[in-house]
Specification:
Elements (H helix, E strand, L loop, with lengths): L2 H20 L7 H18 L3 H17 L3 H17 L3 H15 L4 H15 L3 H14 L5 H14 L3 H18 L2 H17 L3 H18 L2 H17 L3 H22 L2
Helix pairs in contact: 1-2, 1-4, 2-3, 2-4, 3-4, 4-5, 4-6, 5-6, 6-7, 7-8, 8-9, 8-10, 9-10, 10-11, 10-12, 11-12, 12-13
Length: 267
């Protein structure tokens, strides 16, 4: 995944995060709207490559949250900064920021997201046991409708560790949860993972069905990075079937999506 595409996915994930932080309230206070707006603008600036502008907006959000003793606002902003740092490859800074986010998020709905980010950072460092432990904490701490998202991460970790049976179980549970909660992007993630697992079991027809459903969902949500990931997984499936022509076709489509997504993200 390119840096721009990764940040596009990050922006989408962070939007869910913002909803989780403030979405349970019928009407946001002026302060909450301001914190949400500053974070959204900062993430948008970061996705376009304007790092200095993004940090200025994050700093204003932190100052405003601190002035109100707003732990939700503080942890949300620190968490977004941490995610940006991770996607920029600044893992030490990302680790420092997520620890601050965890310290501020205790007892708030943000704690599950902070624990999930901690798990992702441990995964990036190839600390699989710690990644699994923090992903489990994220699942246990979830207070809203993101259980499917937490289960997807646990399934991903199980797949990486080679426990395909557990990965299948977790991905199927995640698929059910995401369908019930209407989390379409996470449902597509579950489907993509299940499709990959079925492909590895050489159940090619079922894998194709699952991957095409994931692609359809991601197209409905208009998320280029996810569409490209679906096409690349379909290419992997075609490769396993020794269909080189079809494999190259999917890979070319994925490259086209990523290239044009990169152009659009800078506009």
């Amino acid at each position: 995944m390119t840096n721009v595409a990764a940040k596009t996915v990050l922006l989408l994930a962070a939007t869910i995060l913002l909803g989780g932080c403030f979405g349970s309230k019928v009407q946001l206070s002026e302060h909450e709207r301001k914190i949400s707006d500053l974070n959204e603008r900062a993430l948008d600036s970061a996705a376009k490559g304007y790092a200095t502008d993004a940090q200025k907006l994050f700093q204003e959000a932190l100052q405003r949250a601190a002035a109100q003793d707003d732990r939700n606002g503080l942890s949300l902003t620190l968490l977004n900064q941490s995610r940006i740092a991770r996607h920029d490859g600044k893992l030490q800074l990302a680790a420092q920021l997520v620890e601050q986010a965890l310290a501020n998020a205790g007892g708030t709905p943000q704690y599950a997201d902070a624990a999930q980010e901690k798990a992702l950072q441990e995964l990036a460092a190839n600390h699989l046991a710690e990644a699994g432990r923090w992903a489990g904490i994220a699942l246990q701490s979830e207070q809203g409708n993101l259980q499917g998202r937490r289960l997807n991460l646990l399934a991903r970790i199980a797949l990486i560790t080679g426990d395909k049976t557990e990965a299948m179980r977790l991905a199927e549970t995640a698929l059910t949860a995401n369908k019930q909660d209407g989390m379409e992007l996470e449902r597509a993630n579950s489907l993509r993972m299940l499709g990959l697992l079925k492909a590895q079991e050489r159940q090619f027809d079922k894998a194709e069905e699952l991957l095409q459903e994931a692609l359809k969902l991601d197209k409905q949500q208009e998320v280029s990075a996810k569409i490209a990931a679906d096409l690349e997984t379909l290419a992997e499936l075609a490769g396993l079937q020794d269909n080189k022509g079809l494999q190259q076709g999917y890979l070319q489509r994925a490259r086209t999506v990523r290239e044009h997504s990169k152009i659009i993200s800078k506009q």
